[in-house]
Design brief:
Helices cover 18% and strands 21% of the residues. It is of the alpha/beta class. It has a domain at 54-181 and 228-267: Rossmann fold. Helix 2 links the parallel strand 3 (58-66) and strand 4 (98-103). Helix 2 packs parallel to helix 5 (252-265). 27% of the residues are buried. Residues 58-181 form the Caspase family p20 domain.
Amino acid sequence: MQVNQDAADTVPLQPNEGLPLPQPGPEMVYNRNPDVDPEEPAVNRSDLEALEYKTCDQPGYAVVINNRAFNGRGLHDRSGTDRDASNLINRFDEFGYHTVHLVDMSKEELMAELRRIASLDHKDHSAFFCAILTHGNKDGLWATDSQMKLTDLTDIFDAENCQTLLNKPKVFIVQACRGDEEGKPVVIRVLNEDRVVADALPNEPVDMEIPEEPVEPTSVDILTIPANMDFLFIHATVEGKKAWRNTASGTPFIGKFCDELQTLLNGQGQVTE
């Protein structure tokens, strides 16, 4: 049996409306109001306007949605996906995330489990990760029994529905096709040249941290924010194109992503702005 062939995570288009990606929300609007409902979600202004996200006591949750087999929808089994799922779970575990592996769930089962996770208290968590390994097309993604949009999943964790993840990064990694077009290969020539480093600064640590004493707020502002702020979407392919998977070794996208996580974990990586 052939096991090393490449397979595309794509399916025929279905009559479905809209694109799976959420649309950008309105700009932030401030309204000063000292009489604030204490039940409304609150965030310190310094955290909201900071250039970096705040690191909390715990990394948080990392969910891996792994769809291998589909219920009579004319969709091929996604051989090789377990390699991707194992790779992701191992990397997230090594970073200290609480991993949840959701395998071959129907849309109803998947939505219920994600709502359960969103209902947990994430106030001491730094971030939320969700990797989605499944079939897809330009209309959306597939659970094992029916199609769904990416926003069906992301809306569960927005500022309205998951308030303890407010102002925290929510990263969705999607290994699925976004259409049935194959990418066009381009042959280029690569010219070797000496590596030149210009305007380099000495690698000397500089302590820029300024200790601050906690300050009680003297007033409270009402801030209107987009519900889908702080989301990052990482796709295996561009809109309209197939995404590829090796039936033995998994996908090049997830494999490389996990390699980069391993590099960061080993302290060899560099995070750039």
